[in-house]
Amino acid sequence: MVITRMEIQGFKCWRRSMFDFKPGLNVVRGPNESGKSTLRAALMAVLFGNPTSSSETIQDWTSWGKSERCELKLEYTDHAGRVCRLRKDFAARKIFLLENEETFRTFKTIQTKIAEELGISTEDFYSLCSSLDVRSLSDLGTVASRKQIGKILSSLMTGAVSGQDVLQVLKRLEDALRELGKGQRSPSKVPGPIKATQDRLTQLSAERAETRRTLALRKERLHELAELNRVLEKEVSHLADLDHLIEVNLKLAEADRNKVLMIEQDTRFEQTVELRKRIETELEELNQKLKNEAASGFSMEEISELQDITGKQRRLDERLPTEPSRDTTSKVLLIFGMSVFLIGLGLWPFKTLMGISVVLSSFAPLLVGWQQKKTSNRRKKDFECQLNLWHREKEELEKRLTVRAKVRSPEEVFNSWPQSQKLSARRDALQSRIRELEPVDQEKWKVVRRELRLVEDILNDPKMAGLRLPAPKLAGFQREQKDLATRLSGWQQQAGRLQAILEHEQSGSDKLSGLEEEAAEFTQRLAYLRKREGICRLTFELLDRARKDTLNPARKVLEEQAGKLLHSFSCGRYGKIAVDDEDLSSKILITETGKWENPTVLSQGTFDQFYLGLRLALSEVLSGGKNPPLLLDEPLTALDPARQAATLECLLRFARKRQIIFFTCRPEYDRVADQIIELSGGVIDA
């Protein structure tokens, strides 16, 4: 691949710019912060970046102060001399590749085309051998880098298909062997298939022994269960006879009790009916007597009112004779007063003072007599009015009584009242008694008599009567029934346990056959796993030996080419490099001591030359001779002028067969450049 043109839009400091490149050595020169490293990053992005990705790295490529993603275009000439145009629009998330008038639009297809053209499949591998800067030259000495180089070498030299190189196969075989043998030599929480199969076989052996021991007890338990069933059958029959006999006697006893109760209820119904009839007859007689009594038609209030009026009249009649005596007293006082007054008048001419005093003393009896006379007349008048009022009320009551009692007088009513009261009280008592008596439910009485007949039928049944037992004997049978039921319950529980055990043992018999089958299956599986382990181990050993035999020529080629480059770079001081077969770690032969040493003992300049030569040799070996463009960013900074010139001379020889884009800030490389691209610094627009 030879890059001819690069167009950048919106990539970090490059807002819009275009660069033309030529085959050979292209020197991109400019001061610091002029965009050299950004241009190299843009070349890597257009070769390996994925526009459809949402990676933060792609976000970092956005031009400063802008929000839209970048757009990159690359024009190159492939090994067949055809002009190809690659466009990656990170803003629109689209990718295009025009190759020989054929357009490709999928990232996977286009990257496959780019990888075929470069001879290197990924950005990481390209950075290891074809995109170098002074800061990352020694990264090749890390374990991760050596593993990546070893993987590439293994893939190339062993003819890997679809990325499945011999290292991956060996790793898978090693993992398979480790997984198969896990737990055999040391304990493991998760044992491997062989150990798990062995453990399962041991467990199955123990389970089979336990199952056989369980089945050995089956015959004994079967015999015991048969004996229990025979005893149970006999005793259950005896218990059924006892239950029937006791049930009959209990039924007879209950019938006796029910008969007594039914007779009592029937007698109570009859007595109630007879008592009700007697009470009703007596009530009729009392009602007839009350009709014949004088006071029977009067209420107690009327009789009381008449008695009250009669009593008041009698009391007034008793008071009437005392009223004239009161009137006589007033007359006596008046006569006495007049007599004293006359005596005083008679004494007036003779004894004036005495006459006056006698006259004055007569006024008192006169006033008292006159006042008492006046009061007596008023009381007498009121008394006569009250008496007349009571007479009228009495006459009205007597008329009503006469009308209601017909020919009977009030005295006869009064005289018959106590007897009427007794009869009424007796009638009320009988009425209360008859209310207290519940009416006889004829339907219930019929039910009682029907049940009584049924009970008598049961008691008179000859079959049941023949089974009647005396109370002591019945109590003995009941005790025997209870004891027998308890024993039967225990025997039944024992039989149930035996039956459950036997059923389990029956399933255990099936389990034993299953265990036998499973043990046979696991035995076959163990044999298969051990055979598989042997095959995997043998395959691993043979394949690993074949890998080493295959990689040995590649290692020698790498050592030879890297040694030649280092010999040229160091002006002939160093020229031998050794690469380890296992981890691809590198060593250098120190001429002064004749010993192989780690490159870290070298000076910084020689150290950089060592790894630069190793990387350039790797680039040729790993790319399979396709010689992808080299992107070199100041790899000669730490070299003295002589070694710098020798290294530059080697790079010029490289530039005759592959394109080199050399990024630097120094002008001394201009004289050997096939093209110079000068960067002025700052943000560059087209």
Number of helices: 17
* N- and C-termini, Cα separation: 26 Å
Cα Rg: 73 Å
How does the overall form come out from the CA principal axes?
elongated
Q: State the oligomer.
A: single chain
Largest sheet: 6 strands, antiparallel
Indicate the low-confidence ranges by residue numbers. Answer: 156-163, 682-686
Mean pLDDT over the full residue set:
77
Supply the helix-strand structural class. Answer: alpha/beta
Query: How is the largest sheet built, in terms of strand order?
Result: 2-1-4-5-6-7
Number of strands: 14
Question: Roughly what fraction of the amino acids lie in strands?
Answer: 5-15%
Helix content: 55-70%
What does this structure look like?
The protein is of the alpha/beta class. The protein has a domain at 299-405. It has helices spanning 36-48, 56-60, 107-118, 123-129, 143-157, 166-181, 193-216, 218-292, 300-319, 322-347, 352-405, 410-436, 442-460, 462-466, 471-569, 604-622, 641-655, and strands spanning 2-11, 14-20, 25-29, 71-77, 83-89, 94-99, 102-104, 131-133, 577-579, 586-590, 595-597, 630-633, 660-664, 675-678. The strands form three sheets. A six-stranded antiparallel beta sheet has the order 2-1-4-5-6-7. A five-stranded parallel beta sheet has the order 8-12-13-3-14. Helix 8 (218-292) packs antiparallel against helix 12, helix 10 (322-347) packs antiparallel against helix 11 (352-405) and helix 15 crosses helix 16.
